[in-house]
Amino acid sequence: MPGRKEIKSPLDAWLLKEEVAEELRKVLGPRRARRVAKDPHARRKPRPCGMTVHPGQGCSLGCLYCYVPDMGFPTKPRPYHLSGEELAYALAINPHVVPGRTLAAFGSVTEPFLPGITEKTLEYFRAVNEWLSLPCQVSTKLIIDKELAIELARAEPKLSILISATTASKAKTLEPGAPLPQERVVGGENAVRAGLRADLFLRPLIPGVTTEDDIRELLHLAKQHGLKGVVAGSLRLTQTNIRRLRSAGVNVNELMRLAGLRRPPKHETQVPVTAASLKEVVKEETGRQGLQYLPAACAANILSHGLNCYLCKWGPCGRPSPNVKEVEGSIIEFIKELLRPKDLEVISSQEGLRILIRVKVWGLNRALKSLRTYSYFLSDFHKVKVILESG
Ligand code: SF4
Questions:
Q1: Is residue 136 part of a domain?
Q2: Is 343 left (phi over 0), alpha (psi -120 to 50) or beta?
Q3: 386: domain range?
Q4: Do the beta carbons of residue 296 and residue 234 sit within 8 Å?
Q5: 204 close to ligand 1 (CB < 6 Angstrom)
Q6: Adjacent-strand bridge partners of 360
Q7: pLDDT digits (tens, 9 = 90+) for 178-223
Q8: 290 alpha carbon to ligand 1 midpoint, in Å?
Q9: Cα–Cα distance between 59 and 250 in angstroms, integer?
Q10: How far, in Å, CA of 27 to CA of 1, rounded?
Q11: 317 touches ligand 1 (CB under 6 Å)
Q12: Quick check: helix, strand or coil at residue 189?
């Protein structure tokens, strides 16, 4: 196993990715490797929060606002069928994954710490961390006990933990299978004591359900239990969560109005509900409680791993700006190694939060085409926009 290597440049990441794929191909053997290559983890693109990793599929907590059933996943959760090594191989051959940089988000279509899923989650953290050094993040509504916290810190020492909550007062109705948020934050404290970073994930904020008092109480609890910051997220309406919320007495018509919907969305469609005024309350209250307001879940992951990110308008997040000259240097190194061009010219400029780099590679049209395939490597690594041109 290559182990955790220092990845300073796109070239380091590229070489590590090749090495890991090669080594894992030998470990798995050709038949297993061919089977894993067909898994969605080997192909799908990262979402804004990072590459979603599924240690399981489905969830039994039965939260009324959940959209996982609309995605076709069962209410009886099952662990994902890949082993840790198979998952690492799938990610190593996924063209969108950059070792050391691509954020890995666990828990989008399951609760990662349900009985029967926790072992798989830990196995995946170990594999993803040890083979590819991907910065991992997990969101949970369950209580992380002390033993689990220690195991998590061993598996991924910089793991970012998000403790999920929607409301303090109506949690029993909305999240019938989950422990109360007042208990979940104790799990966050256990993670903090084990040396991990934990943040509060106020998601989904539901207008008409989540109150200002809820927000104040949850933020106060977060502060008391050593959580560092707060991420706020919106509700997404689906065909079936509209039904479930309505049956619990929630004013669904108002939610549909906020989402711009006249009728429930069609099968599998998710429509976000704006919660701008609630988010403003969260922002204000976060400052008052001495917590950090984070624009998105990915920001918590970036901070937890001591990285920086300039990818979107909400940033930059994390450490200060990379040095333009260093970025240029590492991009030239990468191109030279990959293409061995006779001559190339790099033109760079800084626009807002991004560094734009135009690379002219003289007389290498075919090679340039293949380089374009790898341009995500350059852009994802430094959060720079790289424009490739032939001379
Ligand atoms: S700049 Fe911040 S909010 Fe935007 S993608 Fe990066 S980490 Fe996320």
A1: yes
A2: beta
A3: 324-390
A4: no
A5: no
A6: 345, 389
A7: 999 999 999 999 999 999 999 999 999 999 999 999 999 999 999 9
A8: 21
A9: 22
A10: 10
A11: yes
A12: helix
